[in-house]
Amino acid sequence: MASKIRWSLPEGVDELLPPKALQVEKLRRRLIDLYVSSGYQFIIPPLLELSETLGGEAHEELQEYAFTFKDELTGKNLSIRPDISEQASRIDAYRLDSNDTVKLCYVGDVVKRKVSKILRSRATIQAGAEIFGDSSIDADVESINLMIESLQSLGLEGLTLSLGHAGLVSIILERFKGFGESKLRDLESALSRKSVSDINSLLSEEKDQSNRNLLISLCKLYGGEEVIDKARTDLKALGSEAIECLDYLKELIKSLDLDKKVKLHLDLGEIQGFRYHNGVVFSAYIESAGYSLSKGGRYDGLRKLDNEPRPAVGFDLDLLAVVSFTQLDI
């Protein structure tokens, strides 16, 4: 008799068993129905992409998270997608012949080479919706409202919406661009963790401490809507461009029609997982989860063939993370 082979799954990979597998599938269908009924077209992008074009303008960043291997058929390097939103951007740019507003949605598997520090997972199911070709504040409002509605439709209660502005963060970090990529990423990491001690340590040799003080101020600019007014004072050295970011957030909050059950939180030092956002950024939390259950923001999509900028805004959520907190009996 042949001996049994010891069987196990790779680190950071799990499988869905009954009854959770059916629960996840029902929630997946619920999201697709919500997005399609809201006017979004459903797409199913491929699991594999050519490594040389993975992520479009966010290529270098996404490549860090992608499993890559050589294709025996063509000899080219292929990558397993770590994110679907950039695939949606590519489809809008090169597969759909329209310069009008395009709304796309998706639900599919993603695999990341780097293990999530929170969930200890490298494979999950990503769901999301993107709006291309609309730079208006109305599109931002629609995307945020749909993100909230997505989580509520999945049975999540006690949501907190967190808002920030990637443009504001970029204005400050631009002052440190001469430090090199490695140190700049360390500063981003310290900012995302609100670690004043790490920022002080990284910038201890700097003679001019004004930029350091701005970064530390940004760490502390979180809380209610009053944070915007405080930022006008604390960040006034950044000039009119920073004020425009703050004015935009103020206008956006006025335009949002939030459910009274949804709490509003501002975090002006928010840094998303992928760094291609350049406008408003947003995420959703619940008290029982120590991490965001959904996140999104405004970014420049891939350019159309006529080389014109393609504005975009959208969000995604981790369906396997969300299912652990649903209050639905399904």
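^ that was protein a. below is b, sequence first then the tokens
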Amino acid sequence: MTRDTKGPQILISDRETGLPYSKGLMASQVMVTGLSPVRAYQVAEAIEDRLLDQGHPSVTSEELDRLALEVLEDLAGDRYAKNFVRWQEVEALDIPLVVLMGGTTGVGKSTIATQLAARLGIVRVVASDAVREVMRAMFSRELMPSLHASSFEAGAALREPPGRDAAIVGFREQTAAVAVGLQALIDRAALEGTSIVLEGAHVVPGFIDLSDWEDRILAVPVVITVEDEDMHRSHFVARWVDQEGRPASRYLAGFENIRRIQRYIKSQALSHGVHVVPNYDFDRSLAAVIDLVLEKATERAAQEHPAVVGGMPVREGGRG
């Protein structure tokens, strides 16, 4: 049970001007583990209760981190405690995190990307469609017709019908153009040292060469899919209900192309070693992406700061 908010404050002694412990800030840090905002705040409240029980007027950052780890193990289990340790290691990297989240239309990648950014404290989320809109303003329909159609309708905008799958040929042409803008955003993130989440149908493995930035960013590519056709189709009906001006009929009419593009993106992911997350359940999909980000970040931390990794061991016997 939480105590009176007007009770004594615990100062964090090694932070500037002795800042007091904040449940809100701690909850934000704990959300990185994959816990929901509500559960993260409950953990932050439990940490405050234990600090008050100890009766000390101040605590160091290291002591606070160890207490947070204990509370996470007790209330949430090993998985979340280990993710908390991983994130401490990640913060030592001092390079921006760039998450590249691809997937065909209607798989839920925008929602996952937004929540991922909130959990990881990333303030920049850019959709590839926004990049396409900017490029549309720069290049006329006559010059680049594929930019002026939706990803699943780009095949119809081709000047000459291709000898093979028009939907994929048009999508590839559009993706190659948008990739130029996405690469500029990555370059900017590397230059400024600012983390970013790039999401959209045009974030396709194989179209963005990350080798130029491999020493300056931590890139985590991932592809989101919906394997069940009926579930995927239902997303467009829900979108029609939730968002005026985006009738489901247009998406349903192009549904076969949307599915065809998913198969293409998935094949690109598999051939380039990019992780694929099937989105059957939002919370599980988000947790899977968070786990992937922390796994990649921990691998990078182990390469750059081997002495730091594993510095805060997780106790045995925690609940999973």
